[in-house]
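S1.2 Input.
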Amino acid sequence: FTSKRGFVVSRQPYLLKSIIEEAYDFTQQNPLEPTVALRVDCPNGFWVMTDRDKLFRVIYNLMFNSARALLMAPHPREIYVTVRDEDKQCVIRVSDSAAAIDVPEGMIADDGTIDMQALVEKSASQSSGLGLRIASDLMQALGGSLTLRRDDETVVAFFISFPQEIDNRNFHGYAEGPQ
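S1.3 Output.
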């Protein structure tokens, strides 16, 4: 189908952990940059019905921004990805061991949610702003959302959320991707 923003979306079943690991591998292709470790908390055999290329791009953009932020960070240089199935929504939390993103207080709601539109506009002159805009648009095309929340004073995490159409508790898997 075609999304409201004109993206053609083709959903197939994929193992989510393989998409996450491939996005991470892609961020680590520059041998001149220090290695960043990936810590993934994703249930084995966790399937999602998604457009693989679009979800890959969203996860990759977030990991790429994290890897860049970690270049000057002290050790450990780590990206953390946690996956949960919450009330028929797949929720992917992406954060890293770098200092929190500098977010003006006016952009932070009482619940810790950060105004993504304002943040994208603030960083529009940087490639991270463009990457966030693309990621946000792709998540809308997938019927989901990309949000940013401050967990505490030092941790800012991105949350990717989209409908979880596969009940992994009673699912035994099948061949990944288009058949």
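S1.4 Remarks. The chain is about 30% helix and 25% strand.
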